[in-house]
Amino acid sequence: MPEISLHNLVKAYGKSAKPAVDGVNLTVADGEFMCLLGPSGCGKTTILRMIAGIEHASGGTIAIDGRPVDCVERGQFVPPEKRHVGLVFQNYALWPHMTVARNVDFGLRLQHVDASEREARCRDVMTKLRIIDYADRYPSQLSGGQQQRVALARMLAVNPGVLLLDEPLSNLDAALRLEMRAELRRLHETFGTTIVFVSHDQWEAMTLADTIAVMEGGHLQQVGTPDEIYARPANRFVAEFIGNPRINMIPSRDRKGQETDTASLGLKLTERLPRDVPIDVCGIRPEDIRLCETPADGALPFTVESIMPTGGSWVIELAHGEDRLFHSTQSRPRVRPKDQIGCLLPDEALHLFDGSGRRMSIPGYGMSAAA
Amino acid sequence: MAMVPSANLLAPPNVWRRMRHRLAVVRHEPALLIVAILTLFFLYLIVGPVLSILGDAFVVQSGDSARLHQDEGSLTAYYLARVFASKMSSILIWTPLVHTLSIAVATVTLALTLGVTLAWLINRTDVFGRRWFATALVVPFMLPTWTFALAWTTIFKNGTVGGQPGWLQAMGFATPDWLAYGYLPTVFILTLHYTPLVFLIVGNALRRLDVQMEECARILGAGTRTITFSIVLPLVRPALLSAALLIFADCIGEFAVPYLLGLPINYDTLSTGLYRALSSRQNGVAAVLAVAIMTMGVITLLIDIRMMREARRFVTVGGRGAMERRQPLGSMRHLAASLPVLCVLIGVVLPLLTLFLSTVMILPGRFTPDNFTLAYWIGSDLHTIAMRNGILVAPDFWIAAWNTVRIVGIASVISGCLGLLVGYGVLRSPVSLLGNILRQITFLPYLVPGIAFAAAFLSLFAVARGPIPALYGTPFILMLALIAENMPFASRAGIAAMTQLGREPEDAARVAGAGFLTRMRRIIIPIQAAPLATAILLPFISGIKGVSLFVILAVPATDVLTTYSLRLLDYNYDQAANAVVLMIALVAWLGTVLIQRISGAGLSRGLES
Question: At residue B305, does pLDDT exceed 90?
């Protein structure tokens, strides 16, 4: 199974506009299950389409299995029909005039696979994806989940070395998402295919992928395992993008770059931190905040503003002067709104970021309890 | 710490390498090639003729050099002066212009009044039989205009011209010229023909209107009058204006009706004037007239485009059309139906019945049993000089019918396919500028009335130019002209169909390993089969009904049903001519029904575009 490597990849639409993809270097290892994660418009789908070849690069190189398939510097371009990759579109792009069986069959016919083998392989993949019963139906007669499985079967039938998926679970309801998730993981394990998928949904990324590449504004922000990017976000963007409820960010300076006023949470925290490093903001995951009913040593006084049950867990909004923090807990909270309470913000749970938003590695800090 | 050199080991891309990469991409994207070829083709086929006739207006034409003391082909302002500022100007342009404009204005006014009333009755009230009328009222638009003109002549023709008299004349009522020919019948017939268009366009706008907007006004205390004049009418105004301008432009280019009803009393419009100039070999004058007609067409449609852009400011986002609200008419329900009944009667039943009766009667206007015969349809050994057989057994008819099907059919198939290809090219072209140019060029014939376009075609293709031989007299000139004339519709249909399809089904096939031809054959064309069928059938119908292109470009060898019937008429074989016209109307109507079946979209949408 091939590896995919992107080298200084650039995609610009028009000269003046900001590039959609701006100098991305990324290697997807052989057999890896990788997610390109980012908000909409971050360039993730563009990268996927460039790997498939339905968009071409404006700069840089894409190589599949060591062979450059799109290289501006060398003037090389291999069209999608010759790349032998599979791409599952976000809205499936099933061919409406063909039955399910014909949709799945199409790629094999193009490869002039003989009828009996074609039949066998189609049956096999349709059985695996549990759409064999709908083989003679047309796409318009199928539900969203079934259509998605046909789209997947269509690509798997030709057994591509690389499978690209665009928002594979986005159009499905909650039950189907779980089912499809398991399906995709199982497929990855069975076929050992290199899979790259695109998502804006961190749940999808976290639960499916071996490796997550977080993107923003056309740039790669961080590449790592789901645990790594959650526990050690490389910058403010990643820290804030991953995690639900969002990480609490406590600025140590106000917007003008001045130290914030004496009553603020930021200053109280900064006092505890090493003095010689230019810390701009501290982050703490909601679940890392510890509540204590009686003011303990080092605890800061807070007021409970509101309590939001989210089914199985609770989010508690805490106020300290003008500052607001969110705490999440799995156990039923014993506090009520307006209660005065103490909060511990342990040093090891604080993620420290400098003025440019980069993570600062200081021993003793930034090791989430989750890690 | 040492400086780490850039990881990029390859040379930075220079212009040459970028070009090479671009070429490598484009090589696998035939859309650019398609667009380039199509653009050249249509430049030649559409822009070429227009430029050619524009040039003809300023260049000494063959046969005029002796009179002008100038060599053939040298520059001259003579034709311009002759048309606009000479003793002949009044005959050549000013009177026809006044006639054309007064016909157009009267038709627009009447058609709008009648059309809006009908649209309101059918869409917004519970008038008796509204569903049935919704279909029946559209029929006059499917029939060629000259069906009505012939029916009119059958009844009202008087002794001013020779041949068989009209029914009234035959029964002893002398019909005056003003009733039999010229302005009045022309306006009457064009109104009949274009009222359905208003009915369709305004009806659609009314249906799309969100009822909640009206209900909101009602809640705020507005009465029916206020709602009609300050909510509904302003909102359908864009549709109204658009319909008005469309009809206006069509009236300027209308040829068949003024030709049939104006000629007997020398009532000329611009288009019949152009025809006369061409048939009397005044090519230079004809060129000036054609340019004048084109200019008027272009101005009208530019206004339309402008107004549509303005109107887009308050496009009503498709509301819930299901929430229909109709005004109950109470006891007036049946009485109000008399207006649509009258329209169907005069617009459909009467003309068709008249035409049919005229084909089974030996002497006009005599309703006695011995006067009825089917001989003009299926008889043989008739006592006429040339047409000795009934239409359905006359070889000439079948030759003309076969010619029609062949010429119009081939042209329609080609225009339908080219339209889809234009759609493909415009949407897929990696150079969007080229795509836009192609889109504009293919739309151009829409601005040029048929008769002027035919003259332009004649100007370009009548003589051999470069490798292209003289095409006049061959079926090819007709086919090319039909293709060019049909491109506005065909390309729009193609672009719409391709837009709706989107890129993804094709991209999916590419990823699956399908090359360009496979994608076309297995994905694009099968998916677009229904739009393609419509895009072939609609030009076919309009081609079968069309007169202006054929009357100028056809020769006896390429006789089609329309020219055949006009020729029969010239020889006073009225029964046979009317029979041919009925056959054309039948084919046109059947074709429209077929389209409706195929597209399922309903006629109104097809006609509106």
Answer: no
Residues B447 and B345 in one domain: no
Co-location of B344 and B395 in the same domain: no
Degrees (nearest 5) of the Cα angle A215, A220, A226? 65
B106 assigned to some structural domain: yes
Phi, psi of B222 (to 5 degrees): -80, 140
Q: pLDDT tens digits, residue range A69-128?
A: 999 888 889 998 888 899 999 888 899 889 999 999 999 988 899 999 999 999 998 988
pLDDT in tens, B450-464: 888 888 888 888 888
* Residue B110: inside a domain: yes
pTM for this predicted structure: 0.79
B432: closest chain A residue by CA: A14
User: Could B28 and A79 be called an inter-chain contact, meaning their C-beta atoms sit closer than 8 Å?
Assistant: yes
Note the pLDDT tens digit of each residue in B553-580: 888 778 888 888 888 888 888 888 899 9
Distance from CA of A23 to the nearest CA of B (A): 11
Whole-complex ipTM: 0.81
B366 domain residue, yes or no: no
B210 and B298 co-located in one domain: yes
Q: Give the count of domains, chain B.
A: 2
- Chain A residues closer than 8 Å to B13 by CB: 59, 72-73
**Higher pLDDT pick, B128 / A294:** B128
Residues ≥6 apart with Cβ < 8 Å to A212: A34, A35, A37, A205, A206, A223, A224, A225, A226, A229
Range of the domain at B228: 88-314+325-354
> Which residues on chain B are in Cβ contact (under 8 Å) with A171?
none
CATH number for the domain harbouring residue B586? 1.10.3720.10
The answer to whether residue B376 is domain-embedded is: no
Tell me, what's the pLDDT at B479?
92
Q: Which long-range contacts (CB under 8 A, 24 or more apart) does B550-555 make?
A: B550/B478, B551/B255, B551/B259, B551/B275, B551/B454, B552/B275, B552/B278, B552/B451, B552/B454, B552/B455, B552/B457, B552/B458, B553/B454, B553/B457, B553/B458, B553/B472, B553/B477, B553/B478, B553/B481, B554/B478, B555/B472, B555/B473
